[in-house]
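Schema walk-through. Below, the input block comes first and the output block second. Nothing else is stored per chain. Lengths vary across the set, and this one has 202 residues.
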Amino acid sequence: MKILSKLISFIFHPIFVPTYAILFLVWSNPYEFGQFGSYDSFFILQTAILYSILYPLFVVVLLRLLDFIDNYEMRDRKNRILVFIPTSFFFWWTFIVYLKSDYSEVLSDVMLGATISISIALVITSVFSKISLHTIGMGGLFAIALFSVNIAVKDVTVFLFAAIFIAGLVGTCRMYLKAHNLQEVYNGYLVGFLSMFFAFLI
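--- output ---
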């Protein structure tokens, strides 16, 4: 069970969530974002993978090699803060790239929501205590699935219910692994959902 919980935590690691969300949006409305394999969809997904996954991971590896952080699990608040800062920068960078492009503003909204949520997580971790980044990601993913009902040309009902199930599963795994307590998990859902909701609202 512990191995399965770690696997689920890895698959739905928050660093991957913006790319999952953008992949889902591209699939849900090929008329808006281009068919899979087209230049438009390739650019959109390439941007998400490069700027919101590969660059932040490179910085995390660099921080570990230079002994700025103790491990990759980042259970310590200091380690988390050191990782949050560059990650929020790269999320903001991805937001700017999408904002300056000719594609739907939904893409930049996703990255704005991700930037807001990790910035809030940075403040909470610095001033108060830890918060679950995994459930922040899941709260944001659910908000995106909910919003997609208005723009999708495909039936996204299954994905909406899947987002709820996965969110609950991830939160359960984080508590089972004793990475977070119940309050940190619930706070994460709340911050993730409200951050994404605010980004879509403005």
